[in-house]
């Protein structure tokens, strides 16, 4: 068995262990709520509210968010369609099914997690006083995707890394280019 096969086996075992917890009704309800936070509309509402009511930092945040999502969405889609890792329900046939219907066929990386971590780091750059809250929410969104049965743990790790790298890239790019003074 090669290293990739060992990693896949470990990932699958961890997926099933986490999913035992995800079957509890209270955990499933919490996971559904967290997952919905990462669907996208909430990001737009937050960004628009900050832009409208926070004259300086809100505009800065909106610039960061528009640029970051313009990079993240196509990159995430490209990676997902190049790698083509089947979602757990596509590979596992043990009478098991996901708690929600995923939007597409492939799971790696997790787009919900990428967006959540990217958004969290952008918020931290403008509003650092709530750093722990932002990161806990981003992590919760990622974990909820495993608990709901639509992602493996490594999909979440990859999504968190992707979103974080894009956020740091955008923040550095904006700082270097001088747009942060707008």
Question: What would you say this structure looks like, in words?
Answer:
It is a single chain. Helices cover 75% and strands 0% of the residues. By secondary structure, it is mostly helical. The chain has a single domain (26-181), classed as Vanadium-containing Chloroperoxidase, domain 2, CATH 1.10.606.20.
Q: How are the SSEs placed, and which strands pair?
A:
Blueprint (H helix, E strand, L loop, with lengths): L2 H20 L2 H13 L3 H13 L1 H29 L4 H4 L19 H16 L4 H17 L5 H25 L5
Helix pairs in contact: 2-7, 3-4, 4-6, 4-8, 6-7, 6-8, 7-8
Radius of gyration computed on alpha carbons: 17 Å
The level of helicity is over 70%
Count of runs of 4 or more consecutive helical residues: 8
Number of E-state strands? 0
CATH topology assignment:
Vanadium-containing Chloroperoxidase, domain 2
N-to-C SSE string, H for helix and E for strand: HHHHHHHH
How would you sum up the global shape? globular
Termini Cα gap: 55 Å
β-strand percent reads: under 5%
CATH 2nd-level architecture = Orthogonal Bundle
Q: Which CATH top level class fits?
A: Mainly Alpha
Give the overall average pLDDT: 85
Largest sheet: none
Keywords:
single chain; 182 residues; mainly alpha; Vanadium-containing Chloroperoxidase, domain 2; 75% helix
Quick structural summary:
The protein is mostly helical and 182 residues long. The protein is built from 8 helices and no strands.
């Amino acid at each position: 068995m090669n290293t990739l096969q060992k990693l896949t086996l470990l990932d699958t075992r961890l997926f099933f262990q986490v999913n035992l917890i995800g079957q509890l009704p209270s955990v499933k309800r919490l996971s559904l709520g967290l997952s919905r936070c990462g669907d996208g509309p909430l990001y737009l509402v937050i960004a628009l509210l900050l832009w409208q009511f926070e004259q300086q930092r809100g505009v800065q945040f909106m610039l960061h968010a528009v640029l970051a999502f313009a990079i993240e969405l196509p990159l995430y889609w490209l990676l997902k369609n190049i790698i083509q890792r089947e979602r757990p329900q596509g590979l596992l046939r043990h009478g098991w099914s996901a708690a929600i219907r995923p939007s597409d066929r492939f799971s790696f990386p997790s787009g919900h997690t990428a967006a959540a971590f990217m958004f969290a780091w952008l918020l931290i750059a403008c509003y650092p006083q709530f750093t722990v809250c932002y990161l806990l929410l981003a992590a919760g969104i990622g974990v909820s995707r495993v608990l709901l049965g639509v992602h493996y743990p490594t999909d979440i790790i990859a999504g968190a890394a992707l979103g974080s790298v894009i956020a740091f890239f955008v923040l550095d790019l904006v700082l270097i280019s001088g747009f942060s003074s707008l």
